[in-house]
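Researcher: Please generate the 3D structure of the following complex. Treat every line as part of one assembly.
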Amino acid sequence: MPCPRRTTRGSEAAGLGLQLQQRRSGTVSVSVSVSVLVVSVAVLGCCLLPLGAASSPSHNRDTSENHQKSGHGGTQPTNHTKKPFPVLSFDYKHVKQPFEIFLWVLLASLMKLGFHMMPRLSSIVPESCLLIVVGLLVGGIISLVGEKPPVLDSHVFFLYLLPPIILDAGYFLPIRPFTENIGTILIFAVVGTLWNAFFIGGVLYGVCQIEGTNLHTVTLLPCLLFGSIISAVDPVAVLAVFEEIHINELLHILVFGESLLNDAVTVVLYHLFEEYAGVGTVTVIDVFLGIVSFLVVSLGGVMVGAIYGVLAAFTSRFTAHARVIEPLFVFVYSYMAYLSAEVFHLSGIMALIACGAIMRPYVEANISHKSHTTIKYFLKMSSSVSETLIFIFLGVSTVAGSHRWNWTFVVVTIILCMVARVLGVIGLTHVINKFRIVKLTTKDQFIIAYGGLRGAIAFSLGFLLDSNRFPMRDMFLTAIITVIFFTVFVQGMTIRPLVDLLAVKKKQETKRSINEEIHTQFLDHLLTGIEDICGHYGHHHWKDKLNRFNKKYVKKCLIVGERSKEPQLIAFYHKMEMKQAIELVESGGGVKLPSAMPSTVSMQNIQPKKTPSERALPQISKSREEEIRKILRTNLQKTRQRLQSYNRHTLMADPYEDGWNEILIKKKKMIEFEKRISQMNNYLTVPAPPPDSPTIARARLASDPQAWSIKPAADAGTIPSIKVDLASPQTPDSVSMVDEFGKPASRVPREPEDEEEGLMMRPPLGEKGEKEEQEEGKEQQRLLRCLSDPGPAVAEEEEDEPFLP
Amino acid sequence: MGSTSSTLAKIPNAEDLMQETGFTPAHLVRLYDRFKVLDKDKKGFLTPQDFVAIKELAMNPICDRIIGAFFTSGGETLDFPSFVRILAHFRPIDKNRPKEPTSPDPINSRSNKLKFAFQLYDQDKDGKISRHELLQVLRAMLEKQVTEEQLESIADRTIQEADLDRDDAISFEEFRKSLEKVNIDHKMSIRFLR
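Model: Done. Output below.
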């Protein structure tokens, strides 16, 4: 029975224009995923999902189940004659609901896997399109089987599918670009959406009044309602498409921020028009109330989110002893914020964003490293699953929904959407550019206009309409779906080649260096000072005031202990050092990490004074140590190469990181370098440890374990050769003569045991070298965030951004 | 704008100043008013004490450097043209400026902005930011919250990153290079001075 289906699928797949034959692995994986799909769909087709608002009577399902399954289904009369004990029985009903839900989730995830196995396809077609197509197919199959496919229930959508995506967006919102462009974003979100709604609604009404379209039944208010539903840019769709094109930060935050903040406008307009559409008129009072309502909805939502955010931050202060449930607080508080806002019909999206953005800096300062990773991955995972499910359901709902196709209405809607968007963006940019320092160019405007995608929120809002009060609901739904399809398919697919064609600036891949960080802070101070001199209360002035307030009061409350006093720069520096240390370990290849590591204690919360460093090797005097360090450091300066940050643990799972090739190249270089080193036995150079035994290398140096460094050196030949008799490394004289760079020992010899902050505050002697050595196990207790778990991972700029630096 | 033009008349060499700095008359007048406000004793020039009297400025970690930038070469008086010239550095860059090869860069060009910032670091004016000067800046910015060792580590690392010719100091070119990704126009411009 599966066979004929497979060929049908195969032909359908071919019909979609996928060139599968060219890639054998592609076809293999496609047939694998297809067969899995078929099997799961077959099961699904039999047992309908209560997830949708499917209205098919339940007894249908029962009988179909009974047909399909062997064994005794259905009703067995309870007679009291003794039956043989049922060794194996079948009782599907009591697990039906969760079973089906998770089957859908499984289907969605397998689809996602399948797409990524076909690289050519996923580079042309954005994932969202593919998922909608899959949804269409699944819906088609289900209806072929004879059952009614489930429709995307608005209740489920708004309560379960949307929050993870928004929380993910809000938690990782890059605060700095967001606040710098907040004015622009707000104007686009509020004024732009209002303009769109009224323009589309108004013109549609005009069109509906034209003779010959038999749309007279559509009065003004339903038109405006439709306009307000369709005008909002959808965050899910924008995220799905923009994530893949890696556009520069400014444009990304503009479009994305707009899609998030227009929720308040949409909510107010929707409720306003829905309320009064029945009555038929809207008075001035209503408009005024609408404006007030808008303020209440948006500010109220933000406030609710802020309260929950502060609560979450405060709670995280005390979780030092129950690290395992730290992530739970983040999720629960955020979700509660969303639900609480929804109780009062405030903007749940803005509440979520505010909650995530506010709690993040404080929570991250308090929680352990592993919790941080957990939160990050769980958020990404759940938002990814949600997004996949949403798109698949959109496809299924298209097949399932009752449609009324009206050519005029649909075509006019699509055209109006585009026209309204373009006009709105151009007009608003013209006004906005007067107030911006970095102006928006025409290219920017084009991308902003083109990136205004509609998505599932519009569909769900339309679905929520009551068909009694709005007899044209089906027509609306059809139009909404068509617009969604149009924007997602046409605009989503073409935006990537257009971005390349227009040579729009892409996202900067490199991370900030510490130079940039220092100088940026310096310039901030400078500008604040100049503003004060000019008497101008500008951007910097308020930012500075907020920072001071934050430092003085808020941080003390919300961040545990010592960390509250830690300045931004230090936190940044620590993070950088940590990352490099981790990179070093991981790219070092085969360096054994000590097995016992304190994995649950967060970095700065360790007091290293309590854990004296124990070295197995004989102690050398501090001044010797200092000199050796100096020598090694000067050597290391020459061999140092900035490693591309990567993260093996996230490498496969995280589609945003791609440093694998560089790492392979570096490994090769390191192996070559090692070979060269093995020929230079007497030199106090910095060898890369052979992948098999660090101890050999250690013995080679025969002394200071701090002489580790695993830097691959492209310029190994320039390593200065310092002849030191390694046989007797502890001879003070031999070492002291060596300082050929003539650097004055101006620095106070550092005492590692005195440092308060353990890992980071060693002198930057091969910052990496030290970490390496410490990881080697001498000072295990100092290992602060568990190094087997690579850290605040590396591909995200938001990690390094201090909160309002 | 009657008051503007009448105030403008009071400013000596207003035309030349506007030409040199690119400020509009409205800006110049505004700055002149501010100059008058700061000059409490009506001396006609400003002294460092006048600057220190600005409350918010006194709280700024690099306040003395900023003041030092205005009073170059140790002078104790700052007249209005010099005041305006320094502030001209913070005008947003005019993107539409025609590029004449012979005329010098305007005061608010990217390169001049960077030079101004560089001079704030480089107090001894030797053209390089030495480790010592960097440490001073870090100390000022981080106030008393960090230990010496931490400061030194950061300073070392900063120099390592930026120092391309290995002279253990950051020259202007290296400074410029390390900031090439930063949008200086955005970071060093004050909007109202457009």
